[in-house]
Structure formats: structure tokens, C-alpha cells
Amino acid sequence: MDEDRLRKLLHDARNPLNNISVNAELGKLTLQTQGDVDKAVAVFDKILGECRRCSETLESLSEAIAEEQQKGSAP
Question: Keywords of this protein's UniProt record, alphabetized (predicted)?
């Protein structure tokens, strides 16, 4: 696999994980300090979106690895 492509995919996977972490903290603080359930639900919706984004990136990484393995086993 092209090293630059691998680095990009790993970077793309880290971004949503960072967003998930930040939004989880925000959701926790929102509930602890304000008890604002609607605002917390909006934050958790963002977290779920970032989880989907991360899953898509990991699927792309999986496909890239499978492609590379097929190239390696081709005659």
C-alpha cells in the first residue's frame, strides 16, 4: 500500500475520534452543569455522526489493504 495513502487514511480515522472525545466531554459537562437534555442530545448526535465517519474511513482502509493483498498474490 502506498505509504502516503496509508498515512492519510490513518489521519482521517483519527480526526473523528478526536471529535468524539471532545463532544463526549461537552455532553458530559452539559448534563452535569446545565441539565440541558436537548443540548446534550444534539452533542450525542454529533458523536454518532463522527462514529459513522470513522467507520467509513476504517472500511476504506480495509478495502485498501485487501487491494494490496490481491496485488501481492497476483501472478
Answer: Kinase, Transferase
